[in-house]
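lol so apparently i was supposed to do this last week
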Amino acid sequence: MSVRGLGPDAGPKAGPDAKAGGDISIREVTKIYDPDGIHVVAVERCSLEIAAGEFLVVVGPSGCGKTSLLNVLAGFEDLTDGEILLDGKPIAAPGRPVEPGSDRIVVFQNGALFPWKTVLENIVYGPMVQRRRELGRARQAARNLLAQVGLEGIEGSYPAELSSGVQRRVEILRALINEPRVMLLDEPFRGLDAVAKSVMHQFLLDLFERTRLTMFFITHDLDEAIFLGDRVVVMTTRPCCPKLVLQVNLPRPRDHRALGDTRFLELKRAALEAVHEEALKAFRAGERELA
Ligand SMILES: Nc1ncnc2c1ncn2[C@@H]1O[C@H](COP(=O)(O)OP(=O)(O)O)[C@@H](O)[C@H]1O
Ligand SMILES: [Mg+2]
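anyway here it is w/ adenosine-5'-diphosphate bound
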């Protein structure tokens, strides 16, 4: 199998122009929970164009609507208004049931591995439930993926026997085996210590260099956002829509030295200012709601 440049039969690195697609167009999307009852406007007239093979990072105050937007993109939630296209085809529009497809794969915030299954069984789970691949082939593909990222030898281990950093890597491989065009990550490294996080960053950047999947990555951590992203979008406080879009003009491949680059520090200052402004607004709105 070949996962966008990650399989054994993969040729040279897939570049950003790899034809597997992953172009996302978010058009004037609004998401209101319970429009006739509690009426929470989580996302309002949010528009974003994400190019195939782009690493887009979303930051914003807690509760601003980031996860809501990701859930709409994933097909877990319907949207109230607007539309979303993937490679030119509508995947979400009001009143239309959306099928969560394996073309968009979510890596969740908290460990989502089945504790009673081994690493290998966890990774092959997706292709097996979708009956997309015969078991022997799926197992071989999983072993290849593990070997590609230097994790051979843990196939038979159970999640509890692994460090949280290794568990996260297995979760990402479990998503990759489905050959998605887009990977949706909702604060995937939250809760990891600084060292484990930095290992994860390098892992994800290496994967990105090799696969060039479209990444939609949510985080609270501005260093993480700038280190990983091609663009960082700072969202407004709820309802969420883009407030500031920062182009991260740091060359790839990146390593930890990028963190000391003056461009990095400038971008961080701009992002911090925008996030702080929105967090203050959220705080004041909270005070008003409580008053
Ligand atoms: N299923 C739901 N029903 C009602 N309100 C919800 C639901 N999910 C999220 N919300 C509300 O929508 C807002 C945005 O939430 P969320 O998208 O989780 O924000 P973030 O991910 O930025 O922290 C919050 O006010 C939250 O309470
Ligand atoms: Mg969230």
